[in-house]
């Protein structure tokens, strides 16, 4: 109950300070992270947060399912197609290059072998532009750049998840079976469940007396709870079920998705901030002191070298202006997914799980501090240099047909609009 009460107070303060955060290098995400570190067992001890506490893993799982389900609803098949070529470069080229680059750097600067290094690379490969809200949510920022960051961040969590789970299985994790065929069955089952539940609901809406738009928020919330519960009962992967379920809903029931959008954003934001509070509580002096020197080197180089080089290489022949490429390359913050995947690593029981988590925590913490402190200045810099650059025809070969709804679907600020 102490954690719930503390989160309520911190969440209220974050909402009240969101206006100030929008005008300064501060961010509500950074404030919540610092609050967790200060209030956690490493400092004041107001809340007792430990990685081996079942409540931590339960909250992390629920939060990740919530975020994946909500993020998936931003990504209908048609909307993803609208920026497929440009985002495809980031997802199919830059993301694997980032993961492999981080793995190689981990082997080079630490004493870890290739398997844990590849796991660290996979955990840290997703981006989370929620920490780059000044880029994603400002209407004056070029539309193509916002679409790129939106689609990249919405999909890469789901792309990284199977790789993380497979590598965890090879490390001997309790998160799933270590048998490859069983693990593949869990992943395929999650995808199938994510498709089946929305189609079942769509079928019900065609029956007499059923109205999909009467209470769309409750309908989608019920679907999300059903997905999570059935996935647990059938031992299929709940994370993939949630993400695929969100995408399927957006594709076949767009009118219902729109009715859920505001509630979904608020639930997703609260889940992310709760996870950050818990993550901050785990950032004790003992944990940070256990990070090897190579871990801090990895944290620095992941920001200034690995992600920027990977994305700039993937965009080499694109028509995106160079200043927009630079901004996209810089804003590859490690965020919510890496936090939760890092907790999965810590729970795995693998021989080197503690060291892996310490390194992951260092990289994520440094990224949150740096990216959430530089998004406003960089957004202002970009705004001064983008005059006329967004006047590119909708049939730009780097993009598919433009989806007007998608271009602005996440541009509207939320109560904590500077996260």
TrEMBL record:
Residues that span the membrane, as ranges: 31-51, 90-108, 114-136, 148-169, 181-201, 213-231, 327-346, 358-378
Molecular-function GO terms, alphabetical: antiporter activity
Membrane topology: Multi-pass membrane protein
GO BP annotation list: proton transmembrane transport
Principal location: membrane
Protein name (database record): NhaP-type Na+/H+ or K+/H+ antiporter
Keyword Lipid metabolism: no
Membrane recorded as keyword: yes
Boundaries of every Cation/H+ exchanger transmembrane domain copy: 13-380
Keyword line: Antiport, Cell membrane, Ion transport, Membrane, Transmembrane, Transmembrane helix, Transport
Location of region: Disordered: 384-419
Intracellular or extracellular location(s): Cell membrane
GO CC, one annotated term: plasma membrane
């Amino acid at each position: 109950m102490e954690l719930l009460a503390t989160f309520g107070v911190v969440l209220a303060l974050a909402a009240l300070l969101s206006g100030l955060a929008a005008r300064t290098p501060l961010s509500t995400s950074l404030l919540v992270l610092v609050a967790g570190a200060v209030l956690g067992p490493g400092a004041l001890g107001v809340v007792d947060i430990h990685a081996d506490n079942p409540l931590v893993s339960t909250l992390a799982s629920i939060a990740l399912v919530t975020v994946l389900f909500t993020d998936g609803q931003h990504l209908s098949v048609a909307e993803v197609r609208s920026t497929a070529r440009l985002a495809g470069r980031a997802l199919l080229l830059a993301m694997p290059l980032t993961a492999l680059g981080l793995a190689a750097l981990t082997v080079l600067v630490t004493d870890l072998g290739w398997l844990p290094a590849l796991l660290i690379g996979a955990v840290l490969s997703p981006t989370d532009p929620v920490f780059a809200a000044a880029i994603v949510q400002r209407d004056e920022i070029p539309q193509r750049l916002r679409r790129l960051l939106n689609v990249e961040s919405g999909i890469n969590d789901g792309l990284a998840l199977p790789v993380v789970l497979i590598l965890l299985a090879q490390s001997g994790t309790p998160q799933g079976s270590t048998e490859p065929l069983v693990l593949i069955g869990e992943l395929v089952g999650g995808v199938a469940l994510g498709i089946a539940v929305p189609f079942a609901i769509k079928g019900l809406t065609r029956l007499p007396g059923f109205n999909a738009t009467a209470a769309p928020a409750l309908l989608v919330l019920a679907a999300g709870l059903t997905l999570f519960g059935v996935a647990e009962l059938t031992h299929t992967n709940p994370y993939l079920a949630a993400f695929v379920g969100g995408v399927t809903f957006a594709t076949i029931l767009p009118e219902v998705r729109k009715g859920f959008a505001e509630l979904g954003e608020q639930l997703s934001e609260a889940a992310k901030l709760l996870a950050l509070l818990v993550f901050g509580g785990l950032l004790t002096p003992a944990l940070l002191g256990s990070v090897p020197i190579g871990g801090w080197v990895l944290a620095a180089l992941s920001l200034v070298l690995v992600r920027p080089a990977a994305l700039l290489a993937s965009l080499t022949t694109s028509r995106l202006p160079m200043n927009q490429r630079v901004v996209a390359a810089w804003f590859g913050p490690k965020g919510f997914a890496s936090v939760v995947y890092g907790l999965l690593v810590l729970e795995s029981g693998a021989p080197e799980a503690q060291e892996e988590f310490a390194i992951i925590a260092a990289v994520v913490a440094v990224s949150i501090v740096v990216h959430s402190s530089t998004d406003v200045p960089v957004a202002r810099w970009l705004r001064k240099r983008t005059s006329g650059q967004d006047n590119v025809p909708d049939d730009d070969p780097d993009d598919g047909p433009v989806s007007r709804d998608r271009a602005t679907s996440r541009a509207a600020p939320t109560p904590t609009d500077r996260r």
